[in-house]
Amino acid sequence: MQEDFHYYATFCAAYIAGYTPEESERIAFSANFVDLCSKTYLEKVNGPVAAATTQLSMEMADMRTDIPGLQEITGIWASFHFLPYDLYADIKKGFRRYKNKRRMVCGPNGDLVVDTVRLAKGKSLEHIGLSMHVLADTWAHRYFAGTPSLVINNTTEPFYELLESGERRQIRFIHSLGKADDLEQGIFAHSPYQAGENSIMNLGHGRAGHLPDYSFLRYAYLPAWGDYEEIIKDNPSDYLHAFCQMITALKFLNGACLDFEKEQYDFEAIEQHKEEIEMILKKRQLIACDDWKAFGEKLSGYTIAPFDMERYSGKEEPFLFRFCTAAMEQKHMVAKKIYESGNSLAGKIVERSNT
């Protein structure tokens, strides 16, 4: 997902869930900040580098893919962007190493998303926003894993966009840095093929480019892990479910409902806005910030400030401390759950003794 959903749509979900505009903006800022809080940024502001929630391209280029390097990469991407769906999935085929990687595949409504939301209960608005980012990405990034792996994250041709007319249009992928995707011609950039199993190019949805980030897209493809069975990804439906699940989660976090469980979506809360929301989700555009911003401002009567990294950067402002605290709690929780499942891809977690 991009700034349009993580910032502006999250503002809308928070406001609908009952937060004030100011609270909603802080939650939304924190949700979007997850995509920007890198080690490089934290070093610049003298923050704790262990709280990094993303890795910049230049950082990734310098990463080693030995065991410690892979564990560092996985610890970040699996915790915040590709939350594993089922760490105990019954995988019939393959060696243990393959099965462990296969169990890292992201998807919505897994146990870890419940753990993520419940972890944020009673915590700061920053922690709430971070949890909304993680929840939303389980929908956008489903079928990919937050660990470098050719045998999991590679995609094969043919790769089709499913058009409104019912036509299947084959997608053309190119390797071109800095060139925008061409929606009219169906030409998209993606990471170049690398035969190395643990190549950085095989992290997450890089082989599918930005297709998972566009709310309007519906597409069909063959995932490397899928035994040549076609996957159909319906982003408009997934993004709508993500939005309504965020509202449910946010109502739990502000006390409007008693618990948060899997597969609960507050469609009733958006009933009068559903048509407008679906229009935004289905509009063919590279980014929908303007449309979500306009909807949020009409909804709340509040002018949403454009996202600015320096928004909460004053010396007396507790944002960074609260965000970093939330990030480290989330990363520890996810890495611990992964390790307890018998999977060391995110490293070994040892609790400190109280004695």
Characterize the structure shown.
The structure is a single chain. The strands form two sheets. A four-stranded antiparallel beta sheet has the order 2-1-5-6. It has a two-stranded parallel ribbon with strand order 3-4. Helix 7 runs antiparallel to helix 13. The protein has one domain (3-149, 237-340). The protein starts with a helix and ends in a 15-residue tail after the last helix. It has 13 helices and six strands. The chain is 43% helix and 8% strand. It is of the alpha+beta class and 355 residues long.
Topology diagram in text:
Elements: H1 3-17, H2 21-33, H3 39-44, H4 57-61, H5 67-80, H6 96-102, H7 111-119, H8 125-140, H9 150-153, E1 155-162, E2 168-170, E3 172-174, E4 187-189, E5 218-223, E6 231-234, H10 235-253, H11 274-282, H12 289-300, H13 319-340
Parallel strand pairs: 3-4
Antiparallel strand pairs: 1-2, 1-5, 5-6
Helix pairs in contact: 1-2, 1-10, 1-12, 2-8, 5-13, 7-8, 7-13, 8-10, 8-13, 10-11
